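ugh ok so i messed up the first submission bc i forgot one of the chains. this is the corrected input, ALL of the components this time, i swear. 750 residues overall. if the numbers dont match what u have on ur side tell me asap before i send this to the collaborators (the ones from the other lab, u know who)
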Amino acid sequence: MKRRLFSTAIPVLLALLPLSEAWALDGEPYIHDPSTIIECDGKFYTFGTGGGGLISDDGWTWHSGAVRPGGGVAPDVIRIGDRYYMSYATGGGGLAGGHASKVHTMWTKTLDPKSPEFGFKDDTIVASSDGVEDCDAIDPAFLLDPTDGRLWLSYGTYFGFIRIVELDPKTCKRVEGNQPVNVAIDCEATDLLYRDGWYYLLGTHGTCCDGANSTYNLRVGRSRKVAGPYVDNMGQDMLEGGGKLVAAASGRYVGLGHFGLLDLGNGVQKFSCHYEADLDRGGRSVLDIRPLLWKDGWPVGGDNFKGGTFEIQSARSGYALELAVDFVRMPGRRGGFGGFGGPGRGGPAGANAPNGTNGLPSGGLGVNRAPAGPVTPIPLQELAQVSSNWPAGNIGVRLGDYMMRPHQKWVITAVTNAGGYPGSPYFTITIEGTERALAATADAEVVAVPAATGAPEQLWRIDQLTDGAYRIMPKTVPNSRGPLALTAVGASTPTLAEFDPNSDKARWNFTPP
Amino acid sequence: MSKLRRWITLCCGTTIALAFQVRCYASDDTPRTWVPYFTPATSLPKAPDSEGFLQRWLLLEPIDKPNRSNAGFTDSYVRAHLTTNYFTGQFTVLPRNGDKVTVGNEELVWHAVDSANYDVKLFRFAYGLNKRTYGVLFWAVTVVASPRELKGVRLAVGSNSASMWWLNGEEAVDLFGDRRMVADDCVSKRVTLKQGKNVIRGAVINGPGLSDFCVRFIDEKGEPIKDLTLELNNSGI
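and heres the new structure output, hopefully the right one now
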């Protein structure tokens, strides 16, 4: 949605993107029933109902162009070895009143339709429904079990049961003699994932295909065994209609469904979905990619970071990212007990300047008494009160106690025409009320430069981690061979370093100022 | 508040302040010692401790800097006062144990010590010498020998209160503001440790309260570098 972002070509116009405003992906992300997003030769692919799909260079801007033969509905795709296996369904879905359907699999060496190696082979039926039984074999989804390498496929819709069958990971054909297992009712567009000893069955509840009135929403149950039983947070079996809410309609997006896991590694998981209706795109069905968070062992649908004005707080130390400039005292009343101050701290009362003029206490001992006179609010320190003393050139950045001061308030603004990453455009990070921008340096440090130019080293990728904290990475680090992340190398010192998902050093939180 | 109450408050505050000052500066008859915080440094090379902290230092007896609060330790103030020349050879000479320098009208002595702790307790150093403990400026020097050139390492410092640190004559780490000592609080940019001897100089300023610092080198992953030795044998120990 370019019209709601800002151009890097006019940095002075970079402005706050209202927090209440949201956007789905850029380009033409029109799709229904998207498959799990998958990377192939540096590009992202997803496939939808009816054939075809979307391609993206960066996961932010999407265009049509993916190719899938066979038609039908709701495909899924998985890479095993050097093959991309595709599953899709034909028939059923209640279309024309029928529930007789077939789930197919096929494979190709590449998803790039321009590659000479592109071409799907071995189209095989691996599951079906006869139109009478309590199942409608559509909406397939793969799970390659990381614990034992077995390959599973869930399928089904509201007409009866969601079922799981086992496939041979070498051929993607049905394991001989394997019988379907019923695992859920009252949902469709299911998917399976495994995490920390639990199997999760994600399914879409609600009404599909009714545009702005669709009630599609994403639910989950979990089980210690892939065959179930899958129960929700209340202990209700998904065979009895259970399912804990993961994500639903919000903002201007209606009818969220068709989960697909996009695990980017290093503690960053996202999920693809479609909205039945993007109200800003005329109610069309569109793709989105959002953070996948985990809380108490349950997946939670996160929201893409939208920018705003924040304290940027280090998870390591709790200190705030700030310009390395002189701390300017506020004129507020001093309290405390005067004199030399308590051991180890130097109390603020009686605090004279270090050049040592007088140090008599102004607050006295009356801190526990109600004031005799009126109590008047003290305004926060403003930029104009301090910025004239800031150096004109580059200013270092560091971490310090957050004091709501101008040198600690950062405006994070989405920019357009600068590319992006799965689910989001890049951002600039500037001091509120100024053009002073956070930038990566050639020696892999961070600095605040005087002017936001939109240069690649001033653009930042902000990914929410599964625990809710954020990873902040520059788009480019001059002379760097690999991606680096903003990292608290010391309690009070930021730098750029390889991201360590097992440490709080590179975890950050955005707190309203 | 009435004028009378304000006057009483002012008097009480002044009395308390003076009481603090008397208690902090008054000498007493109790024999003072560095034990258990320091021992005299030996001529044998000393490795960092198990966490990489550097425990062998030449410490100069405190310079009088009568700040009664740390509230004004801004970047500008600390930089101005820690880059001031207080004695000859301050940034160039590698002192020897027992060397004396003159600051103003005062003669101060360098002491080569091994800290028993990971941190160097400057307050205890001064207290043990029966020197002033509040409103002080400390200088510290050590020599780190590296068996090989180490690129991309960082000098990691914690100090109470503000401090500045130089590695081989280059400013490396600054800790501004009213700081509490936290290990790895402020960290230098990536620097290179030369093969052989590297000189670290530090200056710590404090008003009231305990003064101390801790210093170590860390690698790109933040892990301590222990394959070093501290050698002050050029210092005449």
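quick check: Residues 1-21, 337-363 of chain A have pLDDT under 50 and may be disordered. that seems consistent at least. Chain A touches chain B through 48 residues (CB under 8 Å).
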